[in-house]
From TrEMBL, chains A, B:
Subcellular location: Cytoplasm; Nucleus
Species whose genome carries this gene: Mus spicilegus
Annotated protein name in UniProt: Phospholysine phosphohistidine inorganic pyrophosphate phosphatase
Sample GO molecular function, one term: phosphatase activity
Gene3D superfamilies in the cross-refs: HAD superfamily/HAD-like (3.40.50.1000)
Span of the signal peptide: none
Length: 242, 242
């Protein structure tokens, strides 16, 4: 315990990953990970600031928070940093009109984005929508652009559903990068800008916060590269060897 | 002409790519590229040795040669180096039992391969069969193996059909490499072993042969790395900038 107290010296806030830390997902819904509802409640009763920092890109923020509230979590939309809203902001700032290769569940986030005559491609964890036809269309849009811009909501290798490990958006990002000879821009963990925006929302510096996640690269590595401390849980996609 | 004669000094044989050089493919079939039937006929009348060296992995060798014969080409199965037969030989030599993520058109090549209780994954240009579900199954098979082996029939970025550019197997290979944290073994161009087996079949050394293809990486780069000369045609997937 003394060791832990030392490691946590100066920590004033916690960034919490959602999938694999608070809950596991399945085709039929989500289930809480044992102890996580009470852990969030305790954190919120403590003097620590709490922010949720997720790469979830299959659901809209509203739907995601709704699911978590139903599971018993004390959480609101304003407390979550998620890649789809961050992407919309970038698209607007840079005058980008995306071709969207995304899950139907997250489409509403892009309702007020102009998608006519696309000048970039946005991919997210599209699940079954990662068909050959849809991937090929995204590829063709990129190849027709003089300056192809590919934005990827996260670059996770895989995530865990109750039925098993599932391919995440990262592989599909790599496929388009390779086929088009380009480099994607990642919005979401482990992008430093994404962690910084989560820290900014709770008014903390990197050295004052700890990230808790199940992904050794996206959560732990990304946070550490930003100057944060980080802790990997043994739930979710955690595997003894990665 | 003098310059060409110089460049071709000592050339005793020609390796010919098929798709994009002899013909273009489409969903409904294949069409010859202008002048290619006569060019093959002239090469065969010349003292040069001729071998066809393809990464075609949507069709069986028999079907591919049948299509080319119907288009008027002087070609037989024995004259073609193709990745599926080369893969079957490797699988047998190493006692590998593949999970196959391939196009239905090439499945017959694997008829005498044991696919029970898979200990590796073989992917080829699967086209529409590159569904999320099929990719995820291949991913899960690899993640369950202690020593995951992924064999990819070629690693092309894209190819050209009459309807436009199409994603080739390379991107999907990259997706699985990234998701599983592994490196695939490529059977087909630009693998040196593949070029060597084509050269061996016509009894030539690398410096005695020239490769003619439309892919700057798979055909031209691969052949040059083997010590061959190479020539890129301006048909098929050729683009002024790659």
């Amino acid at each position: 315990m003394a060791e832990w107290a030392e490691r946590l010296t100066g920590v004033r806030g916690v960034l919490l990953d959602i999938s694999g830390v608070l809950c596991d997902s399945s085709a039929s819904g989500a289930t809480t990970i044992a102890g996580s509802v009470e852990a969030v409640a305790r954190l919120k009763r403590s003097p620590l600031k709490v922010r949720f920092c997720t790469n979830e890109s299959q659901k809209s923020l509203r739907e995601l928070v709704g699911v978590l509230q139903q599971l018993g979590f004390d959480i609101s939309e304003e407390e979550v940093t998620a890649p789809a809203p961050a992407t919309c902001q970038i698209l607007k700032e840079r005058g980008l009109r995306p071709h969207l290769l995304i899950h139907e569940g997250v489409r509403s986030e892009f309702d007020d984005i102009d998608t006519s005559n696309p000048n970039c491609v946005v991919i997210a964890d599209a699940g079954e929508a990662f068909s050959y036809q849809n991937m090929n269309r995204a590829f063709q849009v990129l190849m027709e652009l003089e300056n192809p811009v590919l934005i990827s909501l996260g670059k996770g290798r895989y995530y865990k559903e109750t039925s098993g490990l599932m391919l995440d958006v990262g592989g599909y990002m790599k496929a388009l990068e390779y086929a088009c000879g380009i480099k994607a821009e990642v919005v979401g963990k482990p992008s430093p800008e994404f962690f910084k925006s989560a820290l900014q929302a709770i008014g903390l510096e990197a050295h004052q916060a700890i990230m808790i996640g199940d992904d050794i690269v996206g959560d732990v590595g990304g946070a550490q590269q930003c100057g944060m401390r980080a802790l990997q849980v043994r739930t979710g996609k955690f595997r003894p060897r990665c």
